[in-house]
């Protein structure tokens, strides 16, 4: 018996989790459950991260969490427990599989176009850090972290998974043409990792083009790997291709802890009515059984589920409306009644159970992920983000007075568009500029030099934020303003 942690969640969570566990019990899945307290009602009890310390301890001990959807209380300043769980336990890869299911009609299934796409979404970084500030009353800033070690973890996982799956193609979705440094880093790591997998056809597609291609030619794609926000959007798009969120399972994979859940939320509009579709959570559970090496249980349940769908048995949110729909419990019972049957299309071959690869072990301290040494790094300037509603030339004249003997004022930009020394009067301005100073005559700069300039400039302006301009060897580690 393998012990796992189970959190039923909020809204439809308990109904669909009960249905799935009923199916697991009927299939005699060799799992034992430790039920843990997580979700909205735990927030309401005063636990600000949405889980009790006992829940955290149990999950960290067992290494596997099977969870229902959880509600994030609105407007109370609390963060989503779903995102907290993924980030706290470094489940860096969010794997979502989208397959044509016979019995779930879509435009593609009707046209005979098969879909089998796995989206691997980076799960920790990007704007999901939720690090946001108002710089002025008019200007909000979100920090977007893309890191080399973080990208490496998720991209390596995606290639390994694609190889195991026998995928033909692995595609990186990105926007590196615009975000050259952040998405550029993700794409660079993708091609570095690709060198170790010559058997896979690795390519990249700009994310807007990817969306268009996914809806016109979804059968061309196999495994797609993306940064967090783009991956979130693209995976919901893919859910739409195969029939909606009711059929979208998800696994959050880390080196120590893994979380299995459906993509959909708590569906408050239908909660408590016993009419929700448990398929996405059941598919997530089947993914968990595969992960645990419990292949026989996984195949038995999946074939029964596919048979049930193919047979036209459905909950109210999909299927043939002329046939009466089943409620959540009846749907689970229908799956159980179909154990041992195989669907005409897409049947899974029986597999032997595999010994679980023990990835979960106790950590003594927080792992530090560092990939490069910093010896050839130098400071060559600084960007100050200042609040001002003055015209660019007036700001330039004031800033020039602060440049002193170590700095030169290089340019001024507003919302990333250069407005000084050259620019256009047609560029609309907001009350926050970026003034860029660089080292005079390429002299080396220190942080103390930058602080001296900071103090001097602060006599004239409120400095909302600042960034060092760095060179890594001969490589510029900052972007140029539009028009610079
Ligand atoms: P939602 O996914 O809960 O609902 C969207 C629509 O899909 C609703 O009409 C709902 O009835 C329907 N739906 C969802 N799952 C269904 C199912 N299994 N069977 C039949 N119909 C289903 O998204 P929404 O309304 O944006 O979010 C509601 C709450 O869920 C929010 O508090 C949100 O923060 C939370 N949420 C939690 C997630 C998680 O725990 N991983 C993921 C997404 C949202």
Automatic annotation (TrEMBL):
Native source organism of the sequence? Danxiaibacter flavus
What this protein is called in its record is Isocitrate dehydrogenase [NADP]
- For this UniProt record, give its keywords in alphabetical order, as a comma-separated list: Glyoxylate bypass, Magnesium, Manganese, Metal-binding, NADP, Oxidoreductase, Tricarboxylic acid cycle
Catalysed reactions, as listed in the record: D-threo-isocitrate + NADP(+) = 2-oxoglutarate + CO2 + NADPH
Reported EC number(s) for this entry are 1.1.1.42
What are its cofactors?
Answer: Mn(2+); Mg(2+)
Q: What family is this?
A: Belongs to the isocitrate and isopropylmalate dehydrogenases family.
InterPro entries named in the record: Isocitrate_DH_TT1725_C, Isocitrate_DH_TT1725_C_sf, IsoPropMal-DH-like_dom
* Highest taxon listed in the record's lineage: Bacteria
The subunit field of the Swiss-Prot or TrEMBL record says: Homodimer.
- In this chain the Isopropylmalate dehydrogenase-like domain maps to 3-335
UniProt enzyme class: oxidoreductase
Biological role stated in the UniProt entry:
Catalyzes the oxidative decarboxylation of isocitrate to 2-oxoglutarate and carbon dioxide with the concomitant reduction of NADP(+).
């Amino acid at each position: 018996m393998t012990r796992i942690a189970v959190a039923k969640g909020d809204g439809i969570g308990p109904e669909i989790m009960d249905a799935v566990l009923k199916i697991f019990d009927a299939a005699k899945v060799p799992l034992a459950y430790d039920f843990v307290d997580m979700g909205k009602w735990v927030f309401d009890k005063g636990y600000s991260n949405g889980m009790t310390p006992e829940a955290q301890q149990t999950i960290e001990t067992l290494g596997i969490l099977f969870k229902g959807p959880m509600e994030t209380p609105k407007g109370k300043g609390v963060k989503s427990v779903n995102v907290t769980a993924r980030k706290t336990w470094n489940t860096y890869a969010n794997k979502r599989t989208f397959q044509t299911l016979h019995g779930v009609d879509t435009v593609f299934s009707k046209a005979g176009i098969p879909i089998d796409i796995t989206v691997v979404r980076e799960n920790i970084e990007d704007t999901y850090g939720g690090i946001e500030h108002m710089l002025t009353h008019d200007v909000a800033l979100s920090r977007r972290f893309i890191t080399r070690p973080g990208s490496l973890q998720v991209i390596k996982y995606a290639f390994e998974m694609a190889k195991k799956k026998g995928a033909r193609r692995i595609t990186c979705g990105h926007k590196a043409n615009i975000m050259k440094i952040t998405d550029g880093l993700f794409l660079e790591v993708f091609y570095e990792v690709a060198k170790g997998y010559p058997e896979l056809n690795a390519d990249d597609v700009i994310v807007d083009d990817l969306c268009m291609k996914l809806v016109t030619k979804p059968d061309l794609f196999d495994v797609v790997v993306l940064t967090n926000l783009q991956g979130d959007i693209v995976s919901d798009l893919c859910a739409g291709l195969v029939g909606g969120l009711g059929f979208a399972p998800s696994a959050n994979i880390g080196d120590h802890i893994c979380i299995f859940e459906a993509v959909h939320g708590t569906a408050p509009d239908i909660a408590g009515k016993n009419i929700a579709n448990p398929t996405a959570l059941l598919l997530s559970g089947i993914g968990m059984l595969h992960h645990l090496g419990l292949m026989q249980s996984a195949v038995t349940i999946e074939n029964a589920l596919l048979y049930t769908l193919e047979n036209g048995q459905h909950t109210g949110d999909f299927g043939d409306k002329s046939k009466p729909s089943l409620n959540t419990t009846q749907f689970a019972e229908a799956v159980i009644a179909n154990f041992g049957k195989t669907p005409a299309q897409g049947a899974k071959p029986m597999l032997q159970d595999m010994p679980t690869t023990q990835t979960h072990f106790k950590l003594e301290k927080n792992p530090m992920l560092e990939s490069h040494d910093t010896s050839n790094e130098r400071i060559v300037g600084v960007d100050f983000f200042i609040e001002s509603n003055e015209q660019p030339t007036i700001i330039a004249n004031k800033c020039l007075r602060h440049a002193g003997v170590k700095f030169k004022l290089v340019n001024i930009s507003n919302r990333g568009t250069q407005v000084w020394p050259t620019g256009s009067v047609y560029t609309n301005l907001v009350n926050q500029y970026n003034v860029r100073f660089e080292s005079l005559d390429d002299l080396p700069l220190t942080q103390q030099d930058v602080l001296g300039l900071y103090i001097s400039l602060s006599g004239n302006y409120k400095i909302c934020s600042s960034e060092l301009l760095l060179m890594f060897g001969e490589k510029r580690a900052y972007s140029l303003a539009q028009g610079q």
